Amino acid sequence: MVLKQAAVQVTRWHGSQHPSIANIIQRMKEDGLRPYMWMNMANHRYGIRSHGYDKVLYVIDGTLEIVFPDLNERVVLRAGDRVDIPAGVRHSTIVGKNGAKCAEAALRANARARR
């Protein structure tokens, strides 16, 4: 799934089982990323913001809704799903009703070139 302006890329997990934390971290490291983990309680909301770097986020457990107000789009991510958000793209986040655990990293220039 690619949202308008080819700005944001969502990659859905298609395996029969959700990937493990170790599997996701390994994938991120193979992509040249330095991931860190975070989790949040159900229904937690992050206000609209943007970053000065390209962001890569995997959902490990739970669900996460990401809203892109300038694109008039929203996407719900589930375990194993990945979203790539380019620098400067405004977004907000709503954690699902069962909470969420995620792995996130800034996409460095050398990793971007390999994609």
- The assembly state of the depicted protein chains is single chain
CATH superfamily name? Jelly Rolls
Which residues form runs of ≥5 with pLDDT under 50? 2-6
Shape-level CATH architecture: Sandwich
What is the global morphology? globular
- Biggest beta sheet summary: 7 strands, antiparallel
Gap between N and C termini, in Å? 16 Å
Structural class: mainly beta
- How many domain regions? 1
Q: What does the radius of gyration come to? A: 13 Å
Top-tier CATH class? Mainly Beta
Task: Please provide the ordered H/E string of secondary-structure elements.
Answer: EHEEEEEEH
Structure characterization notes:
There is one protein chain. With 115 residues, this protein is mainly beta. It has one domain (4-108): Jelly Rolls. The protein contains two helices and seven strands, in the order βαββββββα. It has helices at residues 21-30, 109-114, and strands at 9-11, 36-40, 45-49, 54-68, 73-77, 82-85, 91-107. Strands 1, 2, 3, 4, 5, 6 and 7 form a seven-stranded antiparallel β-sheet that branches. Strand 4 (54-68) and strand 5 (73-77) form a beta hairpin. The longest helix has 10 residues, at 21-30.
